[in-house]
Amino acid sequence: MQFFIDSADVGEIKKALAMGLCDGVTTNPSLVAKTGRKFSEVLKEITSLVPGPVSAEVTAVDHEGMMREAHALAKVADNVVVKVPLIVEGLRVVRDLSSEGIRTNVTLCFSPVQALLAAKAGATYISPFVGRLDDISEDGMAMVAQILEIYRAYDFATKVLVASVRHPIHVLEAARLGADVATIPFNVIDQLARHPLTDAGLKKFLADWEKVPKEK
Ligand code: G3P
Fold it and tell me: Is it the case that residue 156 has pLDDT exceeding 90?
């Protein structure tokens, strides 16, 4: 499973790269707003730092506006993937961009049937939002399992990119289901290697090592 970082913060992206846990990046308008920086400036910097795919979202909701923004975003760098919302007009945009060879990430997916439509439109990635479904007492990972079942049944090339990841169990479940990618916020990436028994075990090993007679 590939690890993308769900962030527009260059500092966090650099740390994830240094940890070897940044196969790509996903951004969204809320994440860009948090940086307080201009989107064009942030996107240029991220695409030059990260060799993998970098998702950048359109903010228009009509076909013409989304196409215009998509073309501008795709021109920024070869590794830009255009993020398009899962609305009727968005699916039309995905079909058109796909025929032009521009990669897309269909975002705000909350049902397996929506994911089926995205795949039929030729999306490169589908982003099911697991955390936001869990927030309203639905089962985000059950949605991912059904999407994978459908995609495998018909051999769709669209990759399943698990989004709205909130904790390490989401990462575990995405990997167990065989999702292609999980896009993970930095605070969760940072939690993944940590375990209290690892820390306690290491502390004990180092304390016991002090009792071993030292070599001359
Ligand atoms: O980038 C899209 C998605 O990962 C957003 O996550 O935590 O805002 O639901 P969240």
Answer: yes
Residue 164 CA, ligand 1 centroid: distance in Å = 4
Instruction: Give the residue extent of every domain in the chain.
Output: 2-211
pTM across the whole model: 0.95
Shortest-distance Cα residue to atom 3 of ligand 1: 164
Residue pair 151/160 in contact (Cβ under 8 Å)? The answer is: yes
216: pLDDT confidence band, cut at 50, 70 and 90? confident
Contacts of 60 (CB under 8 A, 6+ apart): 66, 68, 69
Domain at 2-211: CATH architecture = Alpha-Beta Barrel (3.20)
The dihedral region occupied by 108, where left means phi > 0, alpha psi between -120 and 50, and beta the remainder, is: left
